[in-house]
Amino acid sequence: MTWQLASILPVWALSIVGAVLIGVIAAPEKYFTWIPIVFAATVLVAFAIQLGIRRKEGFVTRVMTSTGGSLIVLAAASGILLALA
């Protein structure tokens, strides 16, 4: 696994864990209140990880891939939660 991928996957994992926790813990009427909060947390974590690496090369691509993947995961989770609610 390359270091670029190792810096992206934790953000995606955080969004998956957040989506599962929302589905398990949150009340159905609060699902769509918590989805943007989880996304905001993943964006902050993505920036923290990428800034912690201290490499300029590919910074924008890594942040875009991290947050874009998280957005896709949470959009899919929103569809699933909408079907369950």
Automatic annotation (TrEMBL):
<keyword id="KW-0812">Transmembrane</keyword>
<feature type="transmembrane region" description="Helical">
    <location>
        <begin position="7"/>
        <end position="25"/>
    </location>
</feature>
<keyword id="KW-0472">Membrane</keyword>
<feature type="transmembrane region" description="Helical">
    <location>
        <begin position="63"/>
        <end position="84"/>
    </location>
</feature>
<protein>
    <submittedName>
        <fullName>CHASE2 domain-containing sensor protein</fullName>
    </submittedName>
</protein>
<keyword id="KW-1133">Transmembrane helix</keyword>
<feature type="transmembrane region" description="Helical">
    <location>
        <begin position="31"/>
        <end position="51"/>
    </location>
</feature>
